Amino acid sequence: MEVKEFIDKIAEKTIASCKDVNLLPSPSIAQAIIESAHGTSQLAVEANALFGIKADSRWSGKTYQKSTKEFQNGQYVDVVAKFRMYDTWEESIEDHAQFLIKNKRYSNLVGVTDYKEYCKLIKEDGYATSPTYIQTLIDCIEKYNLTQYDTDEDQEEKPKQPKKIRSFNVHAGHNPSGKVACGSVGYLNESDENRNVCNGLIEKIKNAGHVVYNCTCDDGTSQKDVLQKIVAKCNQHTVDLDISVHFNALSKEYISDSKTKGVEVWIHPNNKGKEVEKTAQAICDSVAKLGFTNRGVKYSDGLYVLKNTKSPAMLIECCFVDDVDDFQLYECSKMVQAIYDGLSIETVEDKEEKKLYYVIAGVYSSEENAKAFAESLASKGYLMNADGNLIRGITTQIKEM
Q: Do 227 and 309 form a contact (C-beta atoms < 8 A)?
């Protein structure tokens, strides 16, 4: 039997048996090739034994007795020994894996992923007496490229899938500070801070390679007008998520009670159990890590933005403008980062910017010659746009000087 044929016969079973107990397959396949003379040895043919495991007191199965060579006192000597005997090669392969895993002296082989280290350890553990056993195994593994059987096909690194470009509408609630329908004012000014958070969040989303639209209204004539203009801007785009940034207010606190009033995120009840609810909770959890009380996800079918935007929407109440402890804890950049983290946005790798370069090919006294050269360039794809840059698909220019 040729070595390749032998490997084909035992590889699948050896891989399975080794993987089941977290052992590296390639050394075991090499051992089988060497110990059984690739399936042609006396033990392999008459006892179905591929690994030459001795039958000591721990073995209760069939045995096969034969003469073998052992390396003792610096030389090989002939000895008669009993070996484990099997009905099939598959039984031999399975028993070999179990022999290694159940024998404490081979416990250091579990989880080893480097075949050279594995070969060194199994020799040191006393598997074989030959002084050249380590190199013999390594040479066999490399000669027959046995490491190919060490890779778990299910765990092979798969080509990276391109990350999805996500889309968002983001707006700050209310009119700007000082105008009609502006936000609440306490220790923090809502209309100022929600715009700071909104702008910071938009910048981070853009820098991550995603699409984001600023739908903030700065010119509303009333609260209703502000809301209508915001929703109108939002509904110009079909996005993954509409985000409305607000700051909460209750009653002004004049003395710290050492407790923040905290963060909450509102969604429409129709979005319960959907992805937007998970994201809302993730934002609450992320902001809470800054030290704000986690008020959790709230539900309302009466908030204008939540019920009138065509895309899923959420309204984030970052913290309370009139709470001493919220005010002392709040930092715009940290709030922006916490909301961004809650959105679980992955950076989309920038595509390398494609640059075009143009070359002045020459000046012709004859328009006919100029046209002929232009046609030659065009046939090769060297075409010029109105700015003189070479590009395909636009007629090459000829200009009179």
A: no
| Superfamily grouping for domain 167-342 | Zn-dependent exopeptidases (3.40.630.40)
Q: Which helix (H) or strand (E) holds 298?
A: strand 294-299
Please give the helix or strand (H or E) that residue 191 lies within, else none. Answer: helix 190-207
Cβ–Cβ < 8 Å for 335, 287: yes
Distance CA 7, CA 29 (A): 7
Which residue in 140, 195, 172 sits closest to 3, CA to CA? 140
Which residue is listed with tokens 């013999």? 136
Q: Do domains 3-155 and 167-342 have the same CATH topology?
A: no
Q: In the chain, where are the structural domains located? A: 3-155, 167-342, 354-401
Instruction: Provide the terminal-to-terminal Cα distance of the chain, rounded to the nearest Å.
Output: 83
Residues with Cβ within 8 Å of 286's Cβ and at least 6 positions away in sequence, in order, are 338, 339, 341, 342
Give yes or no for a contact between 47 and 41, defined as CB atoms under 8 angstroms apart.
no
**Residues 59-107: tens digit of each pLDDT:** 999 999 988 877 777 777 888 889 999 999 999 999 999 999 999 999 9
Q: Note the pLDDT tens digit of each residue in 346-381.
A: 998 654 444 545 555 566 777 787 777 777 766 665
Per the listing, tokens 């000829």 go with: 398
Q: Does domain 3-155 have CATH number 2.60.40.10?
A: no
SS3 80: strand
CA 305 to chain centre: 34
**Does the model's pTM come out above 0.70?**
no
Q: Please report the DSSP string for 121-189 in residue order.
A: HHHHTTS---TTHHHHHHHHHHHTTGGGGGS-GGGSPPPPPPPPPPEEEEEE-SBPTTSTTB--BSSSB
